[in-house]
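Example record

Each entry pairs one chain with its bound ligand, zinc ion.
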Amino acid sequence: MTSIINKFRTAFIFQFLLYGLCAFGQVSTAQSSIHQSIQSKTDEIFDSLVEIRRDFHKYPEVSEKEEKTSQKIEDYLLSLGLEVKTNIGGYGVVGILKGEKEGKRVAWRADIDAISSDLPDVVHFESQNEGVRHICGHDVHITIGLGIANVLASLKENLQGSVYFVFQPAEEMNKGAKGMVDDGLFKLINPDEIYGLHMSPYPVGTIATKSENVYAHFTFMEIEFKAPKDQESLINYTKQIMRSAQTYGPNAKFWNNENLFSTELGVTNPNTIYKDYVALMSDFSIEKSNERVKLGVLVDASNEEKLNEYLALIKNEIETSRYSEELISVKFNFEEGMPVMETPMNDRELTDETLKSISNIYGKQSVIPLYGVPPLQFSDDFAHFQKFVPGVYYFLGGSNSEKGIVAMPHTPNFAVDEDAIKTGVNYFSSMIVERLKK
Ligand SMILES: [Zn+2]
Ligand SMILES: [Zn+2]
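Structure tokens for the complex follow.
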């Protein structure tokens, strides 16, 4: 999960999520034997997976430096008997599991890098690499990827088709996915579908997602003018049109973070207030000189169309205003040299089908359908893979209110209930098996 929350004002929030969502229930009993085999195998290797996760947690490596991490991944995949390719787009690793019969090809992606952080770890298996921490949960992502590989390798005789395990570096820099693709990933493997997950503050035992985008679309909008005589009027005019064109007024419930995950208004309600919006998410930055005036502001939208409509509207307003002569440019970007953020876009059909199949096998309470996106500035370059292969990006619940664990990525107290490893391995091993049958 890439974030620009350090740069812009974005308050904190996700604790609220723990209220109002149901707890994890019992696994449904009506299920076929392959899913029972998956769960037995997961139970059998669970303790070893926890150990593996803690080892990754103790020795985190930042983006583009994941050398030891990728070595451990390679060793594990080789020990399962998978064909393994390494050094793809940096320290990327791919494991190939071929079933006994020909069939469909499904890819599972896990990101593997950690983050620079000097804050102390909140767990007893704290980071031994000074200044580096796994506070985005990628240690858990790697472990779940390896766990699914292990479970499915043990069921190889029953599998039709191939499963590709894509371990991606440099996600936090928003460039590892592109790096792997540019380095020929899709010449090595040719998946029909691709899936991946991210740790999230939803309750342990659950997964959540929606079709299409799962994060807000956002951009930093910059408008530059030749300085008029009365600079203040120009600045006030521009602020006023930009503010009045956003969907929510200053006192709307939209701005109260406690509503993000409330059952009535939040993203889990079909009528959520977070499904159709454009909102200004930062104060205006203003640069003035005798020649130029430049205003900048961060804009979030519930989807790409909304964002583009808003940007076009503002541009048109200014171009047809009394300041049209002064306008130099309207730009949308972050900063020089920063790659454009792509947002994961989930395939509608695959989202519906996979949520249905997980819910059928593990019970309705295991799946939280989402209907909106929080106005935050997160992204994940899993989006880049989805440009080539249809797929779904899920949030995996890692919080446990009873244990005081809040799995909110990029926060100092980020922690994960390790039962989430079991959930991830079970649900997604089953999901992949079901996809291969299609
Ligand atoms: Zn992250
Ligand atoms: Zn992440």
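The domain at 2-214+343-437 is CATH 3.40.630.10 (Aminopeptidase).
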